[in-house]
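ok trying this again, last paste got cut off
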Amino acid sequence: MSAIDFVILWVDGADPAWQQEFRAARCAEGTDSSVIRYRDWGTLRYWFRTVEQFASWVRKIHFITWGHLPAWLDTTHPKLHIVHHTDFIPQEWLPTFNSNAIELNLHRIEDLAEHFVLFNDDTFLTRPCREEDLFRGGMPCDMARLSVVRPSSVSSIILNNLALINQQHTRKSLNRHLGKWLAPCYGLSNLLKTLSLLPWSFYPAFYDPHQPQPYRKSDFVRAWKLWGEALSTTCSHPFRSTSDLSHWLIRYDNLCRGSFAPRSLRDCGLIDLSDTMIESATRHIASAKWRMICLHDHEEVADFERSAEKLQAAFEQLVPEKSSYEH
């Protein structure tokens, strides 16, 4: 198995210097600068604990930051690479507060392994994870499932990705890799959903798992060769825009090309951090119900500080011991 790196994006929305630059760069009407995209739940130290406990085989962690760092983080750790936006994003696109722009430039990170896993700071491992859960035969593990686009805050971005995918790939590409698209490991429900959409003559959409996402650096290079102008336009937006593309474009391209290894996602969970779901979320974390989870921030949080305390307490149950990444 080739070396595998982890990449994690983090922002401290309470940093006064960051807030000043954020306000100065606040973009024109119609862009997305919602506060929930930048608030900190105080769970980052547990991300490092879970990585050390459940994926100690990782070669290197590339920690992407605007410039701020947690006071408790040991930046001298031999596996830790601190990466500022200015280290890998071209100067003409800085400053940026657009996660799409940041993620689309990841292949430019110095010393990034060919095989890497993209984490946002709301995605966690909660049970032991093997290298073969993420890559097999040199290809990223994933589930190919047809879907439809639901109205949401990111639906326009998904449609932008799909427009390019359908220009690049015909549905014949799915037929060439039908065994991967109809792999039994996905489970009957997912297979039926794909089968119900097979009569469409184009790719209507793909199921997006919102989990730690394995990628190859060479796939990002390929995307920039194919769609460089369009990707550059996204990167020029300092805030998320409805006209953006996202890193899902690269994942979709891999699915269409059959450049992935089929994997069940039954051990992955998505949890809303709303007032009505916070208790359920904490139970699932403490009990390690899933191997991987995404904690979806939600506007319906009446007492953010109290909810954050509950979330931290659940992680404290799961991984109580400090990691070697903490002072």
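PB: full thing came through this time. The longest helix spans residues 217-235.
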